[in-house]
Structures are given as structure tokens and as C-alpha cells.
Specification:
Layout lengths: L1 H4 L23 H13 L6 H10 L2 H17 L14 E2 L5 E2 L5 H9 L4 H35 L9 H15 L2 H10 L5 H13 L30
Antiparallel strand pairs: 1-2
Length: 236
Amino acid sequence: MAEENQVMPNEGSGAPEGAPATGEQPGGAEGTQGASAGGAQTAPVGDGKAEQENLMGETLLGSGENAAEGETTQEEGTSEADNVPETYEAFKDVDGNEYSPDSVRQFSEAAKKVGLSQEKAQTLFEAMVPTAKAHMMNDLRSKAEQWALDCEKDPEIGGANFGANKAVAIAGYREFATPELRTILNASGLGNHPEVVRHFYRLGKTLQQDKGVYGNASTAPQRRRRYPKSDLIPDE
């Protein structure tokens, strides 16, 4: 009977002898608490799809896609006024004078190269023109002063007789220069240029040449009678 009361090991369990019955974990409650503590220190496993998207963001193709999205956003935010025109319209200065793009071709090319819109290029042009004009006038004034000094040293009109020769040139200028020509010469400073002064000096010298003596018109002479005391013989 004692043999019948012996507990026989579970043949199908495959568990070794001495293993706890009914699947109890070693350590009992302590093992369960240890597992819970270990779980609190480990980060939760994320979604596999999210991890895949993060990895794709680091690849070359992923970076190119992000860059393309950024470019699209920038294009959407660009207004039509900021676009660089294929050909600029006429520019105007502060006085309202128009300048065709061909007349200021270098400015138009530079504005297009740096990506200026029509509005921005116009603003820059208005600020640039007065400065450019002031520079040109200062440069022309400096040249006119130098031309006057060159006249004093000119082999033909300069030297010790420069004062007298200058008076001759002024006489020729007053005699032959039209009002329009005088405006041009005075406004440009070319009235001091040796070539111009020398030209009017030669014209002035022609005014000093002897032109001869012209008599005044008189009445026709009376016919002289051959025999003034005789009334018989008529004059021929």
C-alpha cells in the first residue's frame, strides 16, 4: 500500500526532479518585485514605424526630401514683387527723368545678378543717380581747371602773350559762337579746353586782318562842257 501512496513524477512535464510544482517562479514574490523594478529602469519599446521614419530621416534620400519640402515652403512664401524680372522696366530718378534699361545696361545687369526685383532696383537707382551726378560734376570741374592751366602753357596761345591771345579768342567766340554752342561749352567746361580756345583764337585773328577801305556812295558826276562860255556848240 505504501507503494500506491507514493506520488509519481509527471512523465509529460519534462521538468527535472526538485523543480517547483504548478509552475511557481523561483524566488516567489521577490522574483516578481525584481522584475517590476527592472521594468521601471528600461525605456518602453517604441513603435517600429516611428523608429523606421527616424532612420530614414538620416539617410541621403531622406535629407533630400526634407530639403525639397523646405524649398517648396520658401517658394510659397515669395511674393510676386520679389521676383527678378527677365527685363527691367525703365528706371526713374528723383526728378522723374526716365532711363531705359539699355542706357544703364551695366546697372541692369548688376541688379539682375544680385537678384533685385523691379521695386528694389528702382529704389537703389533713385539713391545712386544723385551720387553719380555729383561725382561726374566734380570730375568735370577738375578737368576744366586743368584745361585752363594747359591753355596758359599752350605753344600757340600760351606763354607771355597769353592775356592778349585770350582776348583775341574771346573776340572770335563772341563773333562766331551761337547761343546754343555757348551753352554747351559753358555747361560742359569745354570752353577751357585748349583745342576749343585755340580754334576761337584763330577765328578771332581773322577779324583783325586788313579788309581794305570802302568809299561811300556819291552822286553821279556832272558832265563837263567843253566850251562853257559858248552857247552855240553843244556838249558831246
